[in-house]
């Protein structure tokens, strides 16, 4: 099957007892961590430098930031790995190591190196809507914005 003919199955996964290891602590890592905060048991971030928000979350004890460059050892106790550094070589190494270790991995810089795609998420009470467009993030972002409007409008109608 060609990559652009694939469809991704929306499996709703229990991460509450799992450890998610994020390599990199820039914009993309931050965006994804903000989403994961209410779902994942433990979040560990590996990066020599982190954006302000990630530093703040580390201070608040909501994640663990290891201020260092990535080593393969960082992956050993991970249940799920997100690789989001701005260094393609590092992202590729994280991907290869995870494949050897049997850990599910997402590589933000390369759609071909993902066991799963990171969803766009909408939440209302206990309902979670996860969106994916089989590798078309711009489309997903537009659909998310449209749906957000519908949900807000529907809420207003019921007030
Ligand atoms: C395949 C996928 C794999 C994965 O990473 O999971 C992937 C891959 C890549 N994205 C890239 C670029 C951008 N991605 C976004 C945004 C989002 N990307 C997300 C998911 C995914 N992105 C996965 C499948 C998505 C699907 O099919 O639905 C979202 C849903 C979730 C999230 O990131 O939180 C979030 C929208 C959230 C929302 O707004 O609701 C924006 C826009 C922006 O940032 O504002 C840009 C800028 C340009 C543009 O618009 O295209 C690049 C090139 C990187 C480079 O330049 O090197 C790659 C690499 C590649 O394609 O190989
Ligand atoms: N999938 C997606 O939605 C998108 C993916 N991207 C991809 O994500 C990558 C990251 O983007 P941003 O977060 O904006 O970059 P950024 O420059 O904000 O952050 C990069 C982070 O990687 C860390 N890093 C660099 N070398 C490292 C190493 N050896 N070990 C551990 N951490 C290391 C840095 O300390 C920094 O925290 C981009 O290179 C791009 O390819 C970009 C836009 C959207």
Automatic annotation (TrEMBL):
It catalyses: precorrin-2 + NAD(+) = sirohydrochlorin + NADH + 2 H(+). Its EC number is 1.3.1.76. Keywords: NAD, Oxidoreductase, Porphyrin biosynthesis. The keyword Phosphoprotein does not apply. Pathway: Porphyrin-containing compound metabolism; siroheme biosynthesis; sirohydrochlorin from precorrin-2: step 1/1. NCBIfam families: cysG_Nterm. This is precorrin-2 dehydrogenase.
